[in-house]
Protein backbone atom coordinates (compact mmCIF):
# COMPACT_ATOMS: atom_id res chain seq x y z
CA UNK A 1 0.00 0.00 0.00
CA UNK A 2 2.91 2.31 0.64
CA UNK A 3 4.10 1.91 -2.97
CA UNK A 4 0.58 2.61 -4.17
CA UNK A 5 0.57 5.87 -2.17
CA UNK A 6 3.93 6.91 -3.66
CA UNK A 7 2.57 6.16 -7.09
CA UNK A 8 -0.27 8.61 -6.52
CA UNK A 9 2.07 11.39 -5.44
CA UNK A 10 3.85 11.43 -8.79
CA UNK A 11 0.77 11.52 -11.01
CA UNK A 12 -1.56 14.46 -11.38
CA UNK A 13 -4.67 12.37 -12.09
CA UNK A 14 -4.53 10.83 -8.64
CA UNK A 15 -8.30 10.80 -8.25
CA UNK A 16 -8.66 8.48 -11.23
CA UNK A 17 -6.19 6.00 -9.74
CA UNK A 18 -7.95 6.15 -6.38
CA UNK A 19 -11.29 5.50 -8.03
CA UNK A 20 -9.90 2.58 -10.03
CA UNK A 21 -8.41 1.08 -6.88
CA UNK A 22 -11.82 1.16 -5.20
CA UNK A 23 -13.55 -0.42 -8.21
CA UNK A 24 -10.90 -3.14 -8.36
CA UNK A 25 -11.54 -4.20 -4.78
CA UNK A 26 -8.23 -2.89 -3.46
CA UNK A 27 -8.43 -1.70 0.13
CA UNK A 28 -7.72 2.04 0.12
CA UNK A 29 -6.63 3.64 3.38
CA UNK A 30 -6.31 7.26 4.48
CA UNK A 31 -2.66 7.43 3.36
CA UNK A 32 -3.74 6.94 -0.23
CA UNK A 33 -6.32 9.71 0.09
CA UNK A 34 -3.71 11.99 1.63
CA UNK A 35 -1.50 11.39 -1.41
CA UNK A 36 -4.39 12.07 -3.78
CA UNK A 37 -5.23 15.31 -1.99
CA UNK A 38 -1.60 16.38 -2.15
CA UNK A 39 -1.58 15.69 -5.90
CA UNK A 40 -4.67 17.88 -6.33
CA UNK A 41 -2.91 20.65 -4.45
CA UNK A 42 0.07 20.41 -6.77
CA UNK A 43 -2.09 20.40 -9.89
CA UNK A 44 -2.21 24.18 -10.09
CA UNK A 45 1.59 24.42 -10.03
CA UNK A 46 1.81 21.82 -12.78
CA UNK A 47 -0.74 23.72 -14.85
CA UNK A 48 1.15 26.99 -14.42
CA UNK A 49 4.24 25.28 -15.77
CA UNK A 50 2.31 23.94 -18.76
CA UNK A 51 0.85 27.40 -19.39
CA UNK A 52 4.32 28.97 -19.41
CA UNK A 53 5.55 26.28 -21.80
CA UNK A 54 2.55 26.83 -24.07
CA UNK A 55 3.13 30.58 -24.12
CA UNK A 56 6.72 29.94 -25.19
CA UNK A 57 5.48 27.61 -27.94
CA UNK A 58 3.06 30.32 -29.09
CA UNK A 59 5.88 32.87 -29.26
CA UNK A 60 7.94 30.41 -31.31
CA UNK A 61 4.97 29.93 -33.63
CA UNK A 62 4.65 33.69 -34.08
CA UNK A 63 8.36 33.97 -34.87
CA UNK A 64 8.04 31.15 -37.40
CA UNK A 65 5.12 33.03 -38.95
CA UNK A 66 7.24 36.15 -39.30
CA UNK A 67 10.11 34.14 -40.80
CA UNK A 68 7.70 32.50 -43.25
CA UNK A 69 6.37 35.90 -44.24
CA UNK A 70 9.91 37.14 -44.81
CA UNK A 71 10.71 34.13 -47.02
CA UNK A 72 7.53 34.70 -49.03
CA UNK A 73 8.34 38.37 -49.53
CA UNK A 74 11.88 37.55 -50.66
CA UNK A 75 10.50 34.92 -53.05
CA UNK A 76 8.06 37.43 -54.49
CA UNK A 77 10.89 39.89 -55.05
CA UNK A 78 12.93 37.23 -56.86
CA UNK A 79 9.92 36.33 -59.02
CA UNK A 80 9.40 39.98 -59.86
CA UNK A 81 13.06 40.33 -60.81
CA UNK A 82 12.79 37.30 -63.08
CA UNK A 83 9.66 38.75 -64.66
CA UNK A 84 11.46 42.02 -65.28
CA UNK A 85 14.32 40.18 -66.97
CA UNK A 86 11.82 38.31 -69.13
CA UNK A 87 10.11 41.55 -70.06
CA UNK A 88 13.41 43.14 -70.99
CA UNK A 89 14.29 40.12 -73.13
CA UNK A 90 10.93 40.15 -74.85
CA UNK A 91 11.23 43.89 -75.42
CA UNK A 92 14.54 43.37 -77.14
CA UNK A 93 13.00 40.69 -79.33
CA UNK A 94 10.05 42.91 -80.16
CA UNK A 95 12.31 45.77 -81.10
CA UNK A 96 14.02 43.48 -83.53
CA UNK A 97 10.68 42.40 -84.89
CA UNK A 98 8.71 44.48 -87.33
CA UNK A 99 5.39 42.88 -86.60
CA UNK A 100 3.53 45.57 -84.67
CA UNK A 101 0.41 43.51 -84.08
CA UNK A 102 2.33 40.63 -82.59
CA UNK A 103 4.15 43.08 -80.33
CA UNK A 104 0.86 44.44 -78.93
CA UNK A 105 -0.55 40.97 -78.32
CA UNK A 106 2.59 39.90 -76.49
CA UNK A 107 2.51 43.03 -74.32
CA UNK A 108 -1.13 42.41 -73.31
CA UNK A 109 -0.43 38.77 -72.50
CA UNK A 110 2.61 39.65 -70.41
CA UNK A 111 0.68 42.29 -68.46
CA UNK A 112 -2.18 39.89 -67.71
CA UNK A 113 0.27 37.20 -66.67
CA UNK A 114 2.18 39.49 -64.31
CA UNK A 115 -0.97 40.89 -62.70
CA UNK A 116 -2.42 37.43 -62.18
CA UNK A 117 0.81 36.10 -60.68
CA UNK A 118 1.21 39.02 -58.27
CA UNK A 119 -2.44 38.86 -57.20
CA UNK A 120 -2.27 35.13 -56.49
CA UNK A 121 0.94 35.41 -54.49
CA UNK A 122 -0.35 38.34 -52.41
CA UNK A 123 -3.60 36.52 -51.64
CA UNK A 124 -1.75 33.34 -50.69
CA UNK A 125 0.60 35.27 -48.40
CA UNK A 126 -2.18 37.17 -46.64
CA UNK A 127 -4.25 34.01 -46.20
CA UNK A 128 -1.34 32.02 -44.80
CA UNK A 129 -0.30 34.72 -42.33
CA UNK A 130 -3.89 35.35 -41.20
CA UNK A 131 -4.56 31.65 -40.63
CA UNK A 132 -1.34 31.11 -38.66
CA UNK A 133 -1.90 34.17 -36.46
CA UNK A 134 -5.51 33.19 -35.77
CA UNK A 135 -4.45 29.64 -34.92
CA UNK A 136 -1.82 30.90 -32.49
CA UNK A 137 -4.29 33.25 -30.78
CA UNK A 138 -7.00 30.59 -30.59
CA UNK A 139 -4.63 28.00 -29.15
CA UNK A 140 -3.34 30.45 -26.53
CA UNK A 141 -6.84 31.45 -25.42
CA UNK A 142 -7.96 27.82 -25.32
CA UNK A 143 -5.00 26.72 -23.21
CA UNK A 144 -5.41 29.64 -20.81
CA UNK A 145 -9.09 28.76 -20.35
CA UNK A 146 -8.24 25.11 -19.79
CA UNK A 147 -5.63 26.03 -17.19
CA UNK A 148 -8.19 28.00 -15.19
CA UNK A 149 -10.69 25.15 -15.47
CA UNK A 150 -8.18 22.54 -14.37
CA UNK A 151 -6.99 24.63 -11.40
CA UNK A 152 -10.61 25.03 -10.27
CA UNK A 153 -11.21 21.34 -10.91
CA UNK A 154 -8.25 20.41 -8.70
CA UNK A 155 -9.86 22.24 -5.79
CA UNK A 156 -13.21 20.53 -6.43
CA UNK A 157 -11.56 17.10 -6.62
CA UNK A 158 -9.84 17.72 -3.30
CA UNK A 159 -13.20 18.33 -1.62
CA UNK A 160 -14.67 15.25 -3.32
CA UNK A 161 -11.81 13.11 -2.05
CA UNK A 162 -12.30 14.42 1.46
CA UNK A 163 -15.98 13.50 1.31
CA UNK A 164 -14.99 10.05 0.06
CA UNK A 165 -12.89 9.53 3.18
CA UNK A 166 -16.00 10.02 5.33
CA UNK A 167 -18.13 7.87 3.03
CA UNK A 168 -15.72 4.93 3.41
CA UNK A 169 -15.69 5.21 7.19
CA UNK A 170 -12.04 6.26 7.33
CA UNK A 171 -10.74 8.77 9.85
CA UNK A 172 -9.03 11.75 8.19
CA UNK A 173 -5.90 13.02 9.88
CA UNK A 174 -4.35 16.46 10.16
CA UNK A 175 -2.27 15.53 7.11
CA UNK A 176 -5.49 14.87 5.17
CA UNK A 177 -6.88 18.29 6.01
CA UNK A 178 -3.49 19.90 5.39
CA UNK A 179 -3.39 18.53 1.83
CA UNK A 180 -6.98 19.68 1.19
CA UNK A 181 -6.33 23.18 2.56
CA UNK A 182 -3.17 23.37 0.45
CA UNK A 183 -5.34 22.77 -2.63
CA UNK A 184 -7.66 25.61 -1.57
CA UNK A 185 -4.66 27.88 -1.00
CA UNK A 186 -3.23 27.31 -4.47
CA UNK A 187 -6.67 27.91 -6.01
CA UNK A 188 -7.16 31.06 -3.84
CA UNK A 189 -10.39 29.55 -2.45
CA UNK A 190 -10.22 31.06 1.03
CA UNK A 191 -13.84 30.23 2.03
CA UNK A 192 -13.05 26.55 1.43
CA UNK A 193 -9.98 26.82 3.65
CA UNK A 194 -12.05 28.30 6.50
CA UNK A 195 -14.72 25.60 6.12
CA UNK A 196 -12.08 22.90 6.28
CA UNK A 197 -10.66 24.45 9.44
CA UNK A 198 -14.11 24.42 11.02
CA UNK A 199 -14.55 20.77 10.05
CA UNK A 200 -11.16 20.02 11.57
CA UNK A 201 -12.27 21.55 14.87
CA UNK A 202 -15.50 19.54 14.91
CA UNK A 203 -13.46 16.35 14.63
CA UNK A 204 -11.41 17.38 17.68
CA UNK A 205 -8.20 17.47 15.63
CA UNK A 206 -5.45 19.91 16.57
CA UNK A 207 -4.26 22.03 13.61
CA UNK A 208 -0.54 22.56 13.16
CA UNK A 209 1.34 25.61 11.95
CA UNK A 210 1.68 24.29 8.37
CA UNK A 211 -2.08 23.84 8.05
CA UNK A 212 -2.81 27.29 9.50
CA UNK A 213 -0.16 28.91 7.29
CA UNK A 214 -1.84 27.45 4.19
CA UNK A 215 -5.19 28.87 5.30
CA UNK A 216 -3.68 32.31 5.94
CA UNK A 217 -1.96 32.15 2.54
CA UNK A 218 -5.31 31.40 0.88
CA UNK A 219 -6.72 34.57 2.48
CA UNK A 220 -3.62 36.51 1.40
CA UNK A 221 -4.03 35.48 -2.25
CA UNK A 222 -7.60 36.83 -2.14
CA UNK A 223 -6.53 40.02 -0.27
CA UNK A 224 -8.84 39.04 2.61
CA UNK A 225 -6.79 40.69 5.35
CA UNK A 226 -9.56 40.58 7.96
CA UNK A 227 -9.96 36.83 7.53
CA UNK A 228 -6.18 36.42 7.76
CA UNK A 229 -6.08 38.34 11.05
CA UNK A 230 -9.04 36.32 12.30
CA UNK A 231 -7.08 33.13 11.65
CA UNK A 232 -4.18 34.62 13.60
CA UNK A 233 -6.46 35.14 16.58
CA UNK A 234 -7.71 31.54 16.32
CA UNK A 235 -4.13 30.28 16.21
CA UNK A 236 -3.36 32.11 19.45
CA UNK A 237 -6.51 30.68 21.05
CA UNK A 238 -5.46 27.17 19.99
CA UNK A 239 -1.88 27.85 21.16
CA UNK A 240 -0.47 27.24 17.69
CA UNK A 241 2.79 29.18 17.32
CA UNK A 242 2.91 31.10 14.03
CA UNK A 243 6.13 30.96 12.03
CA UNK A 244 7.75 33.42 9.65
CA UNK A 245 5.79 32.07 6.68
CA UNK A 246 2.50 32.65 8.52
CA UNK A 247 3.45 36.21 9.41
CA UNK A 248 4.62 36.94 5.86
CA UNK A 249 1.29 35.78 4.43
CA UNK A 250 -0.68 37.89 6.91
CA UNK A 251 1.48 40.98 6.30
CA UNK A 252 1.10 40.52 2.53
CA UNK A 253 -2.68 40.22 2.93
CA UNK A 254 -2.75 43.54 4.80
CA UNK A 255 -0.40 45.09 2.24
CA UNK A 256 -2.65 44.10 -0.67
CA UNK A 257 -5.48 46.03 1.01
CA UNK A 258 -3.27 49.04 1.92
CA UNK A 259 -3.73 48.26 5.62
CA UNK A 260 -0.28 49.51 6.49
CA UNK A 261 -0.93 49.96 10.22
CA UNK A 262 -1.94 46.32 10.53
CA UNK A 263 1.20 45.33 8.63
CA UNK A 264 3.38 47.29 11.04
CA UNK A 265 1.53 45.78 14.01
CA UNK A 266 2.23 42.26 12.71
CA UNK A 267 5.87 43.17 12.12
CA UNK A 268 6.11 44.33 15.73
CA UNK A 269 4.59 41.03 16.84
CA UNK A 270 7.37 39.17 15.05
CA UNK A 271 9.92 41.12 17.09
CA UNK A 272 7.92 40.57 20.28
CA UNK A 273 8.07 36.78 19.96
CA UNK A 274 11.81 36.94 19.12
CA UNK A 275 11.26 35.44 15.69
CA UNK A 276 13.69 35.97 12.84
CA UNK A 277 12.37 38.57 10.41
CA UNK A 278 13.30 38.07 6.77
CA UNK A 279 13.33 40.40 3.79
CA UNK A 280 9.92 39.11 2.62
CA UNK A 281 8.32 40.46 5.81
CA UNK A 282 9.83 43.90 5.26
CA UNK A 283 8.94 43.95 1.57
CA UNK A 284 5.30 43.20 2.35
CA UNK A 285 5.15 45.88 5.06
CA UNK A 286 6.90 48.52 2.92
CA UNK A 287 4.55 47.66 0.04
CA UNK A 288 1.57 48.24 2.35
CA UNK A 289 2.94 51.68 3.27
CA UNK A 290 3.60 52.45 -0.39
CA UNK A 291 0.04 51.51 -1.43
CA UNK A 292 -1.45 53.70 1.29
CA UNK A 293 0.89 56.64 0.62
CA UNK A 294 2.45 56.34 4.08
CA UNK A 295 5.91 57.14 2.79
CA UNK A 296 7.27 58.25 6.19
CA UNK A 297 6.49 54.86 7.70
CA UNK A 298 7.87 53.13 4.61
CA UNK A 299 11.20 54.95 4.82
CA UNK A 300 11.33 54.28 8.57
CA UNK A 301 10.97 50.57 7.80
CA UNK A 302 13.74 50.90 5.26
CA UNK A 303 16.00 52.45 7.91
CA UNK A 304 15.07 49.66 10.32
CA UNK A 305 16.00 47.16 7.65
CA UNK A 306 19.49 48.68 7.41
CA UNK A 307 19.94 48.45 11.18
CA UNK A 308 19.08 44.74 11.10
CA UNK A 309 21.80 44.11 8.49
CA UNK A 310 19.27 42.47 6.18
CA UNK A 311 20.16 42.28 2.50
CA UNK A 312 17.75 44.37 0.42
CA UNK A 313 16.54 42.84 -2.82
CA UNK A 314 15.23 44.57 -5.93
CA UNK A 315 11.64 44.39 -4.66
CA UNK A 316 12.66 46.36 -1.57
CA UNK A 317 14.35 49.09 -3.61
CA UNK A 318 11.45 49.38 -6.05
CA UNK A 319 8.84 49.52 -3.30
CA UNK A 320 10.75 52.22 -1.41
CA UNK A 321 11.23 54.34 -4.56
CA UNK A 322 7.54 53.94 -5.41
CA UNK A 323 6.61 55.07 -1.88
CA UNK A 324 8.65 58.26 -2.37
CA UNK A 325 7.05 58.77 -5.78
CA UNK A 326 3.51 58.58 -4.38
CA UNK A 327 4.47 61.06 -1.65
CA UNK A 328 6.03 63.47 -4.17
CA UNK A 329 9.47 63.10 -2.55
CA UNK A 330 11.56 63.12 -5.70
CA UNK A 331 14.95 63.88 -4.01
CA UNK A 332 14.53 60.82 -1.77
CA UNK A 333 13.52 58.72 -4.78
CA UNK A 334 16.67 59.73 -6.67
CA UNK A 335 18.83 59.05 -3.61
CA UNK A 336 17.39 55.55 -3.39
CA UNK A 337 18.00 55.07 -7.12
CA UNK A 338 21.64 56.06 -6.59
CA UNK A 339 21.86 53.64 -3.66
CA UNK A 340 20.50 50.86 -5.84
CA UNK A 341 23.25 51.58 -8.37
CA UNK A 342 25.87 50.95 -5.70
CA UNK A 343 24.29 47.63 -4.70
CA UNK A 344 24.56 44.26 -6.41
CA UNK A 345 21.18 44.70 -8.12
CA UNK A 346 20.40 46.29 -11.47
CA UNK A 347 17.53 48.75 -11.80
CA UNK A 348 14.67 47.45 -13.95
CA UNK A 349 11.80 49.13 -15.79
CA UNK A 350 9.70 49.37 -12.60
CA UNK A 351 12.55 51.21 -10.86
CA UNK A 352 12.96 53.84 -13.56
CA UNK A 353 9.21 54.28 -14.04
CA UNK A 354 8.78 55.07 -10.34
CA UNK A 355 11.76 57.46 -10.32
CA UNK A 356 10.59 59.30 -13.46
CA UNK A 357 7.06 59.53 -12.03
CA UNK A 358 8.52 61.09 -8.87
CA UNK A 359 10.20 63.76 -11.02
CA UNK A 360 6.99 64.19 -13.02
CA UNK A 361 4.92 65.03 -9.95
CA UNK A 362 7.40 67.83 -9.12
CA UNK A 363 7.59 69.04 -12.77
CA UNK A 364 11.32 68.24 -12.75
CA UNK A 365 11.33 67.64 -16.47
CA UNK A 366 15.10 67.83 -16.97
CA UNK A 367 15.71 65.09 -14.40
CA UNK A 368 12.91 63.02 -15.92
CA UNK A 369 14.50 63.29 -19.38
CA UNK A 370 17.90 62.44 -17.93
CA UNK A 371 16.49 59.24 -16.42
CA UNK A 372 14.76 58.41 -19.70
CA UNK A 373 18.08 58.88 -21.50
CA UNK A 374 19.73 56.46 -19.03
CA UNK A 375 17.10 53.86 -19.84
CA UNK A 376 17.60 54.31 -23.59
CA UNK A 377 21.39 54.03 -23.28
CA UNK A 378 21.27 50.92 -21.10
CA UNK A 379 20.10 47.36 -21.71
CA UNK A 380 16.50 48.23 -20.82
CA UNK A 381 13.89 49.33 -23.32
CA UNK A 382 11.57 52.16 -22.26
CA UNK A 383 7.87 51.32 -22.27
CA UNK A 384 4.82 53.48 -22.91
CA UNK A 385 4.58 54.01 -19.14
CA UNK A 386 8.16 55.34 -19.10
CA UNK A 387 7.49 57.79 -21.93
CA UNK A 388 4.15 58.82 -20.43
CA UNK A 389 5.81 59.79 -17.14
CA UNK A 390 8.45 61.85 -18.97
CA UNK A 391 5.81 63.50 -21.17
CA UNK A 392 3.73 64.38 -18.09
CA UNK A 393 6.81 65.94 -16.48
CA UNK A 394 7.34 68.17 -19.53
CA UNK A 395 3.62 68.97 -19.66
CA UNK A 396 3.59 70.18 -16.06
CA UNK A 397 6.60 72.38 -16.83
CA UNK A 398 4.94 73.83 -19.93
CA UNK A 399 7.54 72.32 -22.30
CA UNK A 400 5.13 71.52 -25.13
CA UNK A 401 7.81 71.33 -27.84
CA UNK A 402 9.71 68.74 -25.80
CA UNK A 403 6.45 66.81 -25.42
CA UNK A 404 6.05 66.58 -29.19
CA UNK A 405 9.68 65.44 -29.53
CA UNK A 406 9.04 62.68 -26.98
CA UNK A 407 5.91 61.60 -28.85
CA UNK A 408 7.95 61.31 -32.03
CA UNK A 409 10.65 59.34 -30.20
CA UNK A 410 8.01 57.03 -28.77
CA UNK A 411 6.73 56.28 -32.27
CA UNK A 412 10.28 55.67 -33.53
CA UNK A 413 10.70 53.10 -30.74
CA UNK A 414 7.79 51.16 -32.22
CA UNK A 415 5.50 51.96 -29.28
CA UNK A 416 1.85 52.99 -29.39
CA UNK A 417 0.90 55.92 -27.10
CA UNK A 418 -2.08 55.29 -24.85
CA UNK A 419 -4.87 57.66 -23.84
CA UNK A 420 -2.96 58.92 -20.79
CA UNK A 421 0.04 59.80 -22.97
CA UNK A 422 -2.05 61.66 -25.53
CA UNK A 423 -4.03 63.52 -22.87
CA UNK A 424 -0.78 64.77 -21.33
CA UNK A 425 0.45 65.91 -24.75
CA UNK A 426 -2.82 67.72 -25.52
CA UNK A 427 -2.73 69.36 -22.09
CA UNK A 428 0.81 70.62 -22.82
CA UNK A 429 -0.41 72.23 -26.04
CA UNK A 430 -3.42 73.65 -24.18
CA UNK A 431 -1.21 75.47 -21.68
CA UNK A 432 0.70 77.05 -24.55
CA UNK A 433 -2.52 77.95 -26.44
CA UNK A 434 -1.32 75.76 -29.34
CA UNK A 435 -4.85 74.80 -30.31
CA UNK A 436 -3.99 73.61 -33.83
CA UNK A 437 -1.43 71.12 -32.52
CA UNK A 438 -3.90 70.02 -29.85
CA UNK A 439 -6.56 69.30 -32.48
CA UNK A 440 -3.96 67.46 -34.58
CA UNK A 441 -3.13 65.28 -31.58
CA UNK A 442 -6.84 64.53 -31.21
CA UNK A 443 -6.86 63.27 -34.79
CA UNK A 444 -3.82 61.06 -34.08
CA UNK A 445 -5.47 59.76 -30.93
CA UNK A 446 -8.62 58.75 -32.81
CA UNK A 447 -6.60 57.22 -35.66
CA UNK A 448 -4.84 55.00 -33.11
CA UNK A 449 -8.21 53.60 -32.04
CA UNK A 450 -8.47 55.42 -28.70
CA UNK A 451 -11.72 56.99 -27.53
CA UNK A 452 -11.21 60.55 -26.21
CA UNK A 453 -12.58 61.15 -22.72
CA UNK A 454 -13.66 64.22 -20.79
CA UNK A 455 -10.02 65.03 -19.92
CA UNK A 456 -9.18 65.11 -23.63
CA UNK A 457 -12.03 67.41 -24.63
CA UNK A 458 -11.67 69.69 -21.60
CA UNK A 459 -8.05 70.34 -22.56
CA UNK A 460 -9.01 70.89 -26.21
CA UNK A 461 -11.78 73.37 -25.37
CA UNK A 462 -9.44 75.19 -22.99
CA UNK A 463 -6.77 75.38 -25.73
CA UNK A 464 -9.28 76.98 -28.11
CA UNK A 465 -10.40 79.36 -25.35
CA UNK A 466 -6.83 80.51 -24.72
CA UNK A 467 -6.40 81.12 -28.45
CA UNK A 468 -9.76 82.99 -28.68
CA UNK A 469 -11.18 80.34 -31.03
CA UNK A 470 -14.73 80.23 -29.73
CA UNK A 471 -16.16 78.52 -32.83
CA UNK A 472 -13.77 75.59 -32.44
CA UNK A 473 -14.42 75.43 -28.70
CA UNK A 474 -18.18 75.17 -29.25
CA UNK A 475 -17.70 72.66 -32.07
CA UNK A 476 -15.50 70.41 -29.92
CA UNK A 477 -18.02 70.55 -27.09
CA UNK A 478 -20.80 69.56 -29.48
CA UNK A 479 -18.65 66.79 -30.94
CA UNK A 480 -18.07 65.32 -27.50
CA UNK A 481 -21.80 65.42 -26.73
CA UNK A 482 -22.77 63.72 -29.99
CA UNK A 483 -20.38 60.83 -29.30
CA UNK A 484 -22.17 60.08 -26.04
CA UNK A 485 -19.86 62.04 -23.76
CA UNK A 486 -20.96 64.24 -20.88
CA UNK A 487 -19.12 67.60 -20.74
CA UNK A 488 -18.32 68.78 -17.22
CA UNK A 489 -18.26 72.22 -15.61
CA UNK A 490 -14.66 72.86 -16.67
CA UNK A 491 -15.46 72.24 -20.35
CA UNK A 492 -18.56 74.46 -20.32
CA UNK A 493 -16.77 77.21 -18.41
CA UNK A 494 -13.88 77.21 -20.91
CA UNK A 495 -16.26 77.38 -23.88
CA UNK A 496 -18.25 80.25 -22.31
CA UNK A 497 -14.98 82.04 -21.57
CA UNK A 498 -14.07 81.71 -25.26
CA UNK A 499 -17.42 83.31 -26.15
CA UNK A 500 -16.66 86.11 -23.68
CA UNK A 501 -13.48 87.04 -25.57
CA UNK A 502 -15.46 87.31 -28.81
CA UNK A 503 -18.49 89.05 -27.20
CA UNK A 504 -20.66 86.12 -28.37
CA UNK A 505 -23.28 86.52 -25.65
CA UNK A 506 -25.99 84.56 -27.48
CA UNK A 507 -23.71 81.52 -27.82
CA UNK A 508 -22.79 81.88 -24.15
CA UNK A 509 -26.50 81.70 -23.27
CA UNK A 510 -26.91 78.59 -25.45
CA UNK A 511 -24.05 76.90 -23.62
CA UNK A 512 -25.50 77.84 -20.24
CA UNK A 513 -28.84 76.32 -21.26
CA UNK A 514 -27.09 73.15 -22.44
CA UNK A 515 -25.29 72.89 -19.11
CA UNK A 516 -28.58 73.31 -17.24
CA UNK A 517 -30.19 70.56 -19.35
CA UNK A 518 -27.27 68.31 -18.39
CA UNK A 519 -27.92 69.02 -14.67
CA UNK A 520 -24.61 70.85 -14.33
CA UNK A 521 -24.64 73.66 -11.79
CA UNK A 522 -22.64 76.59 -13.11
CA UNK A 523 -20.42 78.40 -10.64
CA UNK A 524 -19.78 82.11 -10.09
CA UNK A 525 -16.76 82.10 -12.41
CA UNK A 526 -18.84 80.81 -15.33
CA UNK A 527 -21.56 83.39 -14.70
CA UNK A 528 -18.86 86.05 -14.62
CA UNK A 529 -17.71 85.00 -18.12
CA UNK A 530 -21.28 85.18 -19.45
CA UNK A 531 -21.90 88.61 -17.86
CA UNK A 532 -18.65 89.89 -19.36
CA UNK A 533 -19.72 88.59 -22.79
CA UNK A 534 -22.96 90.59 -22.53
CA UNK A 535 -21.08 93.70 -21.43
CA UNK A 536 -18.64 93.45 -24.34
CA UNK A 537 -21.58 93.15 -26.73
CA UNK A 538 -23.39 96.11 -25.16
CA UNK A 539 -26.40 94.09 -24.01
CA UNK A 540 -27.66 95.57 -20.71
CA UNK A 541 -30.86 93.51 -20.34
CA UNK A 542 -29.18 90.06 -20.47
CA UNK A 543 -26.51 91.47 -18.19
CA UNK A 544 -29.08 92.43 -15.56
CA UNK A 545 -30.76 89.05 -15.86
CA UNK A 546 -27.47 87.25 -15.29
CA UNK A 547 -26.55 89.56 -12.42
CA UNK A 548 -29.74 88.56 -10.62
CA UNK A 549 -28.93 84.88 -11.01
CA UNK A 550 -25.34 85.60 -10.03
CA UNK A 551 -26.47 87.26 -6.77
CA UNK A 552 -28.51 84.17 -5.88
CA UNK A 553 -25.53 81.87 -6.47
CA UNK A 554 -23.25 84.16 -4.51
CA UNK A 555 -25.68 84.22 -1.56
CA UNK A 556 -25.95 80.41 -1.56
CA UNK A 557 -22.17 80.01 -1.62
CA UNK A 558 -21.53 82.36 1.32
CA UNK A 559 -21.20 80.96 4.83
CA UNK A 560 -23.92 82.52 7.08
CA UNK A 561 -21.50 82.52 10.00
CA UNK A 562 -19.26 84.89 8.07
CA UNK A 563 -22.14 87.32 7.57
CA UNK A 564 -22.87 87.25 11.31
CA UNK A 565 -19.24 87.92 12.10
CA UNK A 566 -18.90 84.57 13.87
Characteristics:
27 helices; mainly alpha; extended; 566 residues
Describe the structure concisely for a colleague:
The chain is an all-alpha fold and 566 residues long. The chain is built from 27 helices and no strands.
- Silhouette: extended
- Supply the helix-strand structural class: mainly alpha
**What's the average pLDDT?**
75
Radius of gyration: 35 Å
β-strand amount: under 5%
Biggest beta-sheet profile: none
- Helical content stands at over 70%
Secondary structure tally, helices: 27
Q: Which stretches are poorly predicted, pLDDT < 50 over at least 5 residues? A: 1-34, 42-48, 138-153, 557-566
Calculate the terminal CA-CA distance, rounded to whole Å: 88 Å
Taken in chain order, the helices and strands follow as HHHHHHHHHHHHHHHHHHHHHHHHHHH
Q: How many distinct beta strands? A: 0
Topology summary:
Blueprint: H1 2-9, H2 14-23, H3 30-96, H4 100-167, H5 174-186, H6 190-202, H7 209-221, H8 225-237, H9 244-256, H10 260-272, H11 279-292, H12 295-307, H13 314-326, H14 330-341, H15 349-361, H16 365-377, H17 384-396, H18 400-412, H19 419-431, H20 435-447, H21 454-466, H22 470-482, H23 489-501, H24 505-517, H25 524-536, H26 540-557, H27 560-563
Walk me through the structure.
There is one protein chain. It contains 27 helices and no strands. The protein has a domain at 461-566. By secondary structure, the chain is mostly helical. Helix 13 packs parallel to helix 15, helix 16 packs antiparallel against helix 17 (384-396) and helix 21 (454-466) packs antiparallel against helix 22. The longest helix has 68 residues, at 100-167. The chain has helices at residues 2-9, 14-23, 30-96, 100-167, 174-186, 190-202, 209-221, 225-237, 244-256, 260-272, 279-292, 295-307, 314-326, 330-341, 349-361, 365-377, 384-396, 400-412, 419-431, 435-447, 454-466, 470-482, 489-501, 505-517, 524-536, 540-557, 560-563. The radius of gyration is 35 Å and the shape is extended. The N and C termini lie far apart (88 Å).
Amino acid sequence: MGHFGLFLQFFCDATFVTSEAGHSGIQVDVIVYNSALTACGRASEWQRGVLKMWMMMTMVMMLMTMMTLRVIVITMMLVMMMMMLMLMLMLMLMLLSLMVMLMMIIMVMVRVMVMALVTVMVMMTMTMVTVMVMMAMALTMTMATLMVMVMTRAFSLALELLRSVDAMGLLPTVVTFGAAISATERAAKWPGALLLLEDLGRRALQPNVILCSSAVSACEKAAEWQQALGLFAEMQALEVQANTITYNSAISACGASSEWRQSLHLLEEVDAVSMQVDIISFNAAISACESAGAWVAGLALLQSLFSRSLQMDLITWNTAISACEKAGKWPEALLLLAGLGESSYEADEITYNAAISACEKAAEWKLALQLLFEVQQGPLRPSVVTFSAAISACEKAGMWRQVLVLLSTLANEGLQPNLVTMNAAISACEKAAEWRKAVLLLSQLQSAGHVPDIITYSALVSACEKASRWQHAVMLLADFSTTGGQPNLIAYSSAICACEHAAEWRQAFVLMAAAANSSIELDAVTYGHAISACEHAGQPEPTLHLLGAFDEILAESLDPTLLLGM
